[in-house]
Amino acid sequence: MKKTILFVLSLLLVNMVMAQMKVTGRVTSSEDGSPIPYANIQVKGVRGVGATTDLEGRYAFDNLSKDAVLIFTYIGFTSQEIPVNGRAVIDVSLATDALNLEEVMVVAYGTAKKGTFTGAASVVKSDAIKDMPNVSFEGALNGKVAGMQITTLSGQAGSTSSIRVRGIGSMNASNDPLYVVDGVPVVSGNSSQLSGYIYTSSNVMSTINPSDIESITVLKDAAASSLYGSRAANGVIVITTKRGKLGRTSVNFKASVGFTPSFATDNYEVATPEQQVEMYYENFWNAGVYYQGKTNAVASADALKQLNNRFNKHGYIFTAPDYTVNSLTIGGDRAGTFFNWEDVLFRTATFQTYDLSVSGATDASSYYTSLSYTKEQGRSVINDFDRITGRVNLSQKVGKYVDFTTNINIARSGKEGFNDTRSTGANYFLQSRNLFWPLYWPTDYVTGAPWTARYGSYAYNPVYYNNEWENTSKTLRITANEAITVKILPELTFKTILSYDNSQTKDHLYYSAAHFTGAGTKGSVTEMTTNTNKLVSSSTLNYNRTFAEKHNVGLLVGWEAEDNQSDFQRSSGTDLPTSALHTVATAGKLDASAYYWGNTMLSLLSRVEYNYNNKYYASGSFRRDGSSRLGPESRWGNFWSLAGSWRIDEESFMKNIDVISSLRLRGSYGVNGTLPSSNYGWRSLSTYANKYMELPGGGVSTIADASLSWETSYTSNIALEFGLLDQRITGTVEYFNRDSKDLLQDVPISQITGLSSTLKNVGEINNNGIEIELNGDIVKNKNLTWSVGITASHVKSSVTKLY
To answer: What's the predicted TM-score (pTM) here?
Structure first.
């Protein structure tokens, strides 16, 4: 009996072993036959068993059932299910998805497939910005998103840019978009206080290394951005950083070097020294003859006198025989020798960046770490920027139902120099074109000492004064996000995020006693520290399910709390004992100030999505915000959107139209808002800056409107998306209209109150326009891909009411 049992068990064991087999193969693209690396292969119905293709598209399973079914998936390609049926080699050719509708993009509080998303959003992948030599990712976005205008406010590296999404929606409040990094709103804009001194700015978003970015999604209409409510009227820029991918550990190193040569500023070229002097002489001569009634001889003599009074101190003497214009001679000891201000004010600037990253992933965890160093010189000799960043992105599965995700980024950036948007008298480009004539020298002609007087104009001698002052701004930023995702049911997921964002900017400004700004104070030095903290807690519950194989429903509910606080400290000193020590502690006269400001917000949010048979789509969202920037009477506001789309290409009457490979119509309408820039604009405030002798004194500083509210934007959008010739040509044509109402304005009031204005909700602005995106593959085969993309937009902004 025992022998019989052993014999039967042996047969079963042999049968089981024979049922397990090794399966290998290769995954390629059906379009050009190229291998698809990192494609995902899963065994249907078996959890935790899978494989990933290598760089050659190859995969292998050591022990696989003969009856197993393999599922092959990769972003941008149509997935396939293939039964093994006892085969040892299974090669698979994946077809590209028609509209690339399965491509997953990051949107508000989650992700969405491109084909199911009903809002207006543009996605920029890392491949589009990775080779752009820009300190900040914002510069690399220029021209890549229709309807988004990026204006460089300064040529100084690390300065804040102006970004406008679909026009200008406010006069007094912010027109900047909201920035969201890895699902959390972050601090953006200028972090420096030097703007009140030398008109420079420090863009806190330049602390993000562009090489760490996986994708950027720009949310443009209410359907896409209304889930961010009172901050989303000017659009939302959603940034997703990189994560490890399944497969072997990947180590990447990239070095980039760029140059900004002299031809970068070869415009508005100056005349020659002879032409400049002739023009000056003609002006004086014409004024004497035609306006003052002088003879030619007298007018010429007076003109020569004025020229010699100005330039003989620099070694030049001028003569004009026969009392006529256009016959001027430049003589003197320096005749034929002129000073080239272009050489001392500008340089061939260099840009260099070095990026190192290590990433990888298993079925249970993934990691991405990076270290980067960037240095950029400005064309101006005193402008420099440098940055070092480090990032760690980790995710870990705990069991079958819980995921932990940690994102940490540390960045230190420094810049020096001044903003080139200063006045004509301090803008080197304008000076070199208008004020610094080649006949002016940086040293005295007689003594050889530095020229410290003005050149009879707005210009000072920068060769001397560049060494008599200092201006630096250093920012240390630390961001940390911790997220927990719990899969309660196959259709129900809970996610909570806690984010901490801290940026500390230290500004240093020094003028020596020899500097024209510090001369009256016998030298001065100022140290400023601005510490900004942002704490965000966000929790969402997400439900997705398909009913009867055709009805797809998605529900999202959540809440979010946000706390913002900034602390500022300034210490200043004048009457410095020596130019060797640039510290406040050595100053003979000290002055200091410190204060803080901040705001809080609490929000409830929800969204519902439905599609029938992946053909007809509808969505709606609702958010309720409460902000401390507004008074109790109007603190809470409601923001919502409705949207829908229609996959026309899925209709039966489109099946025989081979030229059109995809066609989709979508539209939306909704409301979002803009908060006041002032944290306390709704309150009547007092000031205690009015001192009487050495005693403190107070007074009323504002008369406020207690019912002050946010600006509200009513946005409508309609778009047609299409693909032609098997997606060789794709494009989008979009029309939008945005009415911004209850504008925040400083309204004049009777000055008998002691004040001239108060902040109220007054007026309306309309923005409307058309956006066009067109992309085409001119050449696409196994060895070469040549693609062309065009974006165009026309935006009209107008004030429609200002009552």
So the answer is: 0.84
